[in-house]
Amino acid sequence: MAHVQKNYIAGEWLAGPSDITNVNPSDLSDTIGTYAQASADQLDRALDAAKTAQAEWAAYGLERKQAVLNAIGAEMMARAEELGTLLSREEGKPLAEGRGEVFRAGQFFTYYAAEVLRQLGETADSVRPDIEIDVRREPVGTVAIISPWNFPTATASWKIAPALAYGNAVIWKPANITPASAHALTEIISRQDIPKGLFSLVMGTGRDVGQRLVESADIDAISFTGSVPVGRGIAAGAVQNFTRVQLEMGSKNALFVTDDADLDLAVTLALGGAFGGTGQKCTASSRLVVMDALHDAFVEKLVAGTKALKVGHALTPGTQMGPVVSEDQLTENLAWVEKGRAEGAELSCGGTRLSMDTDGYYMSPGVFLNTTNDMQINRQEMFAPLAAVIKVGSYDEGLAVVNDTNFGLTSGIVTRSLARATHFRRNARTGVVTVNLPTAGTDYHVPFGGRGDSSYGPREQGQTARDFYTIVKTAYIASGTPS
User: Would residue 282 show up in a list of annotated catalytic residues for this protein?
Assistant: First the structure.
């Protein structure tokens, strides 16, 4: 009988009523493990324990809390090779990306360990005599964290770390498709000096566990990263209890290549932004907006570069793009290829399932040409190694195309002109803007988030995270008149 990896509920590792099997998308004969699914009763137990534990954790001294977060981050960074290999094995991203993700996740914990000591309040004089005012932040309470499979360790970490740093309890429901990374992070957290019940891992489906978590009156805040439809459902469920929400959802990011751009740089940025992580990034460059003077030369080099990308097993040295995460995702990706063709787009290369040395969910990266911004492949998030080129006649038209979307997460421009770079930075309607950099790739110490259908609620990361994970309290103190 296979060993089942358990959930971590109220300080104990518990089996569940059912379990799932985790398979390597690079090699379907490689079973990574079997993972328990939490029951409704176990979730309720986690919620009950979190209340008591949160009050105890909030009363910990600052340096004691700081030590916990530092220990988590240091261990993750020290084990980046091991845990990155596990991540790449179950998610499919090349090993260098998996290793880098785990190391970066550790940096989130050490960053927020430092933020523990920077939780400073404010004082003010009242407009009334002999009254002083003290303004400070307090923990919001118990936070539900619902994280995605594409960055199973990093996204979870940039939510868990600030939640703990600002004194909250955490109930974590990760994506079911990447349970090994969730279990590994939980194992590290479980060994720390934290109250029993402060942190719980409840694996399960969104229907069975996620919805119950969202609708619970015992949850004070919900941080979610995933699709727009699921985000809308979470918002609708949370509002019944006036639970605060932070939603990071879809995107349709554009990289704008102007006629004065460095051609080789533009192609390099497009290739990395569109196909890094197999295109399974919310920051991926799925729209490549190119001015006509540079269009043909750009397309020629882009297609050649796309064809040259080495697709392979995530753990094989030299692999530049791994498999798609699952059969369902691969099926959806191939359906997008047909939708694009049906809309009149020209598939210049790729977009097909590949047969490799190992049986897996492999797909060749694809480039659509002769597309318009009203095509569905340029309106909806595909989450696939597919990019569409849109030709524009001027800078103004290009900027208009970049902004013509319901989303607004990231956008980028490739140009040698300071004036254009400055204008774009100020007028692109996205939460993140890059200049001569890919649309994917952000730092942990500054805000991250988008506009429109991409994000709802306070920003993530950096010091801005405190706006979501804390509540402001204003106190008035009568000082009196000394005798």
Answer: yes
From 91, 101, 115, 248, active-site residue: 248
- List all residues 6 or more positions away from 304 whose beta carbon is below 8 Å from its beta carbon: none
Query: How far is residue 468's CA from residue 163's CA, in Å, rounded to a whole number?
Result: 9
Closest CA to 91 of 168, 160, 152, 1: 152
Task: Give the orientation angle of helix 62-78 with respect to helix 95-116, to 10 degrees.
Answer: 170
SS3 of 417, please? coil
CA gap 450, 480 in Å, rounded: 48
Distance CA 140, CA 142 (A): 7
Token reading at 397: 């038209």
**Residue 377 CB neighbours (<10 A):** 24
For 229-252, write each residue's pLDDT tens digit: 999 999 999 999 999 999 999 999
**Spatial contact of 296 and 262, defined as CB atoms under 8 Å apart:** no
The percentage of residues in the chain with a pLDDT greater than 90, rounded to a whole number, is 96
**Tokens standing for 378?**
């340029």
Helix (H, G, I), strand (E, B) or coil at 445: coil
Respond yes or no: is residue 248 known to be catalytic: yes
Task: Choose among 84, 216, 222, 90: nearest CA to 147.
Answer: 222
pLDDT tens digits, one per residue of 184-212: 999 999 999 999 999 999 999 878 788 99
**Are residues 51 and 84 in contact, defined by beta-carbon separation less than 8 angstroms?**
no
All structural domains of the chain: 4-249+445-475 (3.40.605.10), 253-435 (3.40.309.10)
| Three-class secondary structure of residue 284 per DSSP | coil
How far is 483 from 461, CA to CA, in rounded Å?
49
Catalytic residue among 282, 338, 346, 381: 282
Tokens of 313: 């097993």
Tokens (6 digits) for 141: 């309470």
- Alpha-carbon span 166 to 218, nearest angstrom: 18
